[in-house]
Design goal:
heterodimer; A: alpha/beta; Rossmann fold; 2 domains; four-stranded parallel beta sheet; 8 strands; B: alpha/beta; Fumarate Reductase Iron-sulfur Protein, Chain B, domain 2; 3 domains; six-stranded parallel beta sheet; 23 helices; about 50% helix; about 10% strand; globular
């Protein structure tokens, strides 16, 4: 069983590089959702990327340098909330493998222990109650592989969607299958990745949902991009941004 | 024209992806396998416990592998099984040939054995005038059609009923076209029955070999394995050297894991435990039993503590069934006897990165394989290792052709990425520039590949860093 600390006064927020570049509103929504519960959110300006792109592509040395930089800028013993299962998985689980023989392994372990994915934090630590103010809508949900298998936070994300009264969640047939993003995989094996995302889009279409929700910007970029390419009028959105929209409509 | 015999992954992938029938066949079959596995392992906690146990058994066995192999040889020899060592597949093939020639044998029946596929034994024996007949139904089908297995458990899974009906009709004499499954089974049974009668030697694989007792354990569903190991006067078993376990008690959890993961059954129809040739007074069984133990690169893999985990594999095939890449490109695309996730980590280690390193890139690291592996092989982690060794020129690299992909462009690109992400101010400036100019960048290289199936993501006008500053989110 995982232990959950009492609701803290202050948390750190790690926004992720993809949210920073492409989905800043999603990143911002996560911050506002936490602030709304009366917490102080600290966003260290020096943060950049968790290092996963290089780590997965065969460049662990470069990944280590970037990772160490992050570890140094979150010094206080606050939880570090991450609006991504994939980046959270990297920092919570893979740092320990990446720095297996490192002299500072203790500090790294201490950092990794503080990593928590946004929806799990909202449900388990903040126990948020959401009041839906939006018009009725059908949505579907895509589970990112690392949220599902590394962080195991899918049930928290879906429980947040289910709190929204006017939102009908229609599940995908192959909800737990990868969308084909996989970072550099999408460009190194474009045809396999393309086949995977095309199947994912077809699965999304058959739900007749108006919106696709997910908790990871990598998947979002991949699936939304494919839907837009195929001129399918379904909007992809990060869960945090969707929730913020619903409760403030 | 590209040479067809040369391994060309890109060409194989494009062929497979464009074959709609093949994709339908695989999708249908794999979804079914996933469902069956789920049903046979209903309790997550119990399954997790079992997988840990399975993994520990393999760790314990591999940690003392040389001793266990010696013990296995000693026990087998004492039980009357003749043991032969083969460093290469060529040596293993010659052992088979020598044994057969010693008996003047020209006809061999084979139970399903992936190691014999690794040896390309059928082709080798054919060159020496020996007829080898596959007796597992799936193997029989693809042998008729002169194909290789596309899956390690269900070798003809890429074929549907209609295609099999066509193969039987065309390749077997006096067989009228029928799609009736019972009739197709009966045709195969009738044809094979005669082969069992005529064979002078039977060959099988080994699922587990027990060092303490010298027991060869073999599971199967069709009874053909038992026929191959008991009807002909001579039985030859072939195994990879990683198949040895310490003691009989290790077999039970491993069988449960293997069978549940492979076919979704609690137990196979046949579980063969072979310890000796026919003894005086016994009514059946072969008069001679041989065990050929093959290395073929395995001991080199054993030498590295991380890569060693590759040898945990008990060949259940469940990583294939759960792999979104395998499901879409099928087994033949990998150009290797073991396809799917396990093939992606094994082939580059056996054949070298230059030839097979590309396979390590064919994964989104979704971890579906690691989630179900019955002996907890961290396949995604080993893929990362192989990706690293593809580029790295470090002395610590172990895999053949390490550093083969080392090049200035990639090195500089990742150095640049590192620099950007360790210099936040620079990062912020680039971000601002991209927010304005991002959409005007010409889609070259990786971006071009991305654009074949998707639109490019648009850089936000204001980054998250800018938004948090504007909204006065605290900095520390």
């Amino acid at each position: 069983m995982k232990g959950y600390p009492e609701k803290p006064e202050t948390v750190y927020y790690f926004g992720t590089c993809l949210a920073d570049m492409f989905y800043p509103e999603a990143g911002m929504a996560g911050i506002k959702l936490i602030q709304r519960e009366g917490l102080r959110v600290v966003f260290p300006r020096q943060q950049t990327c968790c290092g996963q792109p290089a780590y997965n592509s065969g460049f662990p040395k470069e990944a280590k340098k970037v990772a160490l930089k992050q570890i140094d800028i979150f010094p206080e013993n606050y939880p570090i909330v991450v609006p991504s299962g994939s980046c959270a998985g990297m920092m919570k689980h893979h740092y320990l493998l990446l720095f297996e023989d490192h002299a500072r392994l203790d500090a790294i372990q201490q950092f990794s222990n503080r990593i928590v994915e946004l929806s799990e934090f909202m449900v388990r630590t903040l126990n948020v109650k959401l009041e839906d103010r939006g018009a009725p809508i059908k949505v579907t949900w895509h589970s990112s592989c690392h949220a599902l298998r590394e962080m195991q936070t899918i049930e928290y994300s879906k429980s947040l969607i289910r709190q929204l009264q006017n939102v009908q969640l229609i599940e995908l047939q192959n909800e737990s299958e990868c969308c084909g993003f996989g970072g550099t995989f999408a460009v190194k094996q474009p045809d396999i990745s393309g086949a995977m995302v095309s199947d994912k889009v077809a699965d999304i279409q058959q739900t007749a949902a108006a919106r696709l929700l997910t908790g990871d910007c990598g998947c979002l970029m991949n699936i939304s991009g494919a839907m837009e390419y195929q001129k399918i009028p379904i909007k992809g959105q990060h869960l945090a941004e969707f929730i913020w929209e619903r409760i403030n409509a | 024209m590209p040479d067809d015999s040369e391994f060309n992954f890109r060409r194989n992938v494009s062929r497979a992806l464009n074959d709609r029938q093949l994709r339908r066949n695989f999708k249908f079959a794999m979804e079914n396998f996933i469902l069956k596995r789920k049903e046979i392992f209903p309790d997550e906690c119990e399954t997790e416990h079992l997988r840990t146990l399975g993994s520990n058994i393999k760790v314990r066995a591999l940690n003392q592998l040389p001793r266990l192999l010696e013990q296995l040889e000693e026990k087998c020899t004492r039980n009357g099984i003749q043991v032969h060592w083969a460093e290469t597949t060529a040596e293993a093939n010659h052992h088979v040939l020598r044994i057969m020639q010693g008996h003047g044998a020209t006809r061999l029946v084979k139970g399903k054995s992936m190691v014999s596929e690794e040896m390309e034994l059928n082709e080798f024996l054919q060159e020496h005038g020996i007829e080898a007949t596959e007796t597992d139904l799936g193997e029989f089908i693809i042998q008729l059609n002169n194909e290789k297995p596309s899956h390690i458990i269900v070798p003809a899974i890429h074929k549907n009923k209609t295609q099999i009906a066509q193969i039987f009709h065309e390749k077997l004499s006096d067989v009228p076209y029928t799609e009736d499954v019972e009739q197709l089974n009966a045709i195969a049974r009738r044809t094979l029955r005669q082969k069992f009668f005529d064979a002078q030697v039977g060959l099988s694989g080994v699922n587990f070999a027990v060092a303490q007792t010298g027991t060869l354990c073999l599971v199967e569903n069709e009874g053909n394995g038992r026929m191959c190991t008991t009807v002909p006067p001579v039985h030859i078993a072939v195994m990879g050297l990683e198949k040895v376990v310490e003691k009989l008690e290790d077999i039970l959890p491993l069988l449960r894991l293997l069978i549940g993961s492979a076919t979704g059954q609690l137990i196979t129809t046949y579980v063969n435990m072979i310890t000796a040739p026919r003894k005086k007074g016994e009514k059946d069984g072969p008069e001679e039993v041989h065990l050929i133990i093959l290395d073929n690169g395995r001991s080199k893999i054993l030498a590295d503590p991380q890569l060693r985990q590759t040898l945990h594999c008990i060949r259940c095939g469940t990583c294939l069934n759960h792999c979104p890449v395998y499901t879409r490109i099928g087994g033949h695309a990998y150009g290797f006897v073991y396809p799917g996730p396990i093939g992606k980590i094994l082939k580059p280690q056996v054949e070298g990165l230059k030839k097979a390193g590309v396979l390590a890139t064919a994964s989104s690291l979704c971890e579906a394989c690691a989630e179900v592996c019955p002996v907890k092989i961290p396949i995604p982690q080993l893929l990362r290792r192989l990706r690293n060794e593809s580029y790295s020129r470090d002395a610590s690299c172990m895999v053949k052709d390490c550093g083969y992909q080392h090049n200035l462009i990639d090195s500089m690109a990742w150095k640049g990425w590192e620099w950007m992400n360790t210099h936040p101010h620079l990062n912020a400036i680039v971000q601002k520039i991209m927010g304005v100019l991002g959409s005007k960048i010409p889609p070259l290289g990786p971006l071009k590949q991305w654009r074949r199936y998707r639109t490019l993501p648009r850089f936000a006008r204001k980054s998250l860093h800018q938004l948090v500053a504007e909204q006065r989110v605290e900095n520390e």
